[in-house]
Amino acid sequence: METKKIEVPVMADLFARGEKPEYLFWVGCAGAYDDRYKKVTRAFAKILSYLKVSYAVLGKEESCTGDPARRAGNEMLYQMQALQNIEILNGYEVKKIITICPHCFNIFKNEYPDLGGNYEVINYIQFLDKHIENGSIKLDASLLDNAKITYHDPCYLGRGNDIYAEPRSILKKLTNNFVELERNKSFSFCCGAGGAQMFKEAEPGKKEVFIERTEEILRSDAKILATACPFCMTMLTDGLKYKNREEVKNLDIAELIVQVLGL
Q1: Do 81 and 55 share a domain, yes or no?
Q2: C-alpha of 41 from chain center
């Protein structure tokens, strides 16, 4: 199936023409560089185009938010990265930021204000849920054949920012066969990558965190694991490969919506 090409507007180009978009779409490191998560970036960009949203990306001007540096304990590097980003964002008079990474969302929303970076920060799941609720996006559960779907709560969406209702509301419109994992919502279990664990060797123990969570996912008997975080996507896809259960698909919520809309 041939995919439709879309033009993604770049902030510098719009600004040069005297245009100011309503939203900055913050792609994030994974969305820009990780081959698997690039597909999520494309999926969400297609939805923005479908909705005719006024937005732009920073493109080559976008840098890391500094979240991994701060979680790993390098406060100086974090502040250098954050202050550089704030200067660029304020230079473009950015007021609203949409993120597809919960780590970017959390640090923009809760930690950048301490350094003078004050923005309205919206996670893409909240954005998608709002447009589904107002009828801009219409979902038909039958298009996924009512596949059995479960959902893994990312730490920085769930426990970090209390975003539990929106992803479930979306998924229950994508299927009539939604199942919860044994540990969910505020009692959910980490994928094993948070707190900069993604970038270091595993610590001694009987079982790695991502294996524990993958086993729980497999016990749900779901055919699709819905995720909403690049770290969770990487760890749990690895878990399914480790268990030789790649018939269970790990798909981002944006990808599922694009599939149903036929974009």
Answers
A1: yes
A2: 9
User: Is residue 3 situated within a structural domain?
Assistant: no
pLDDT in tens, 133-188: 999 999 988 888 889 999 999 999 999 999 999 999 999 999 999 999 999 999 99
Q: What is the pTM of this model?
A: 0.93
Which of 77, 104, 128 is the endpoint of a domain? 128
Residues 124 and 140 in one domain: no
Helices 35-50 and 230-242, packing angle to 10 deg: 130
Q: Measured at the alpha carbon of residue 149, what is the angle toward residues 145 and 151, in degrees to the nearest 5?
A: 155
Work out whether strand 224-227 and strand 178-179 pair parallel, antiparallel, or are unpaired. Answer: unpaired
Residue 205 has pLDDT above 90, yes or no: no
At residue 169's C-alpha, the angle toward residues 163 and 173, to 5°, is: 155
CB 116 within 8 A of CB 153: no
- What's the pLDDT tens digit per position in 78-131? 999 999 999 999 999 999 999 999 999 999 999 999 999 999 999 999 999 999
CB 213 within 8 A of CB 238: no
The CA distance from 250 to 240, in Å, is 9
Q: Of 130, 101, 91, nearest to 25 (Cα)?
A: 101
Q: Which domain holds residue 112?
A: 11-128
Question: Which one of 128, 151, 169 terminates a domain?
Answer: 128
Question: What is the spatial distance between Cα 206 and Cα 166, in angstroms, rounded to a whole number?
Answer: 35
Confirm whether 2 is domain-assigned: no
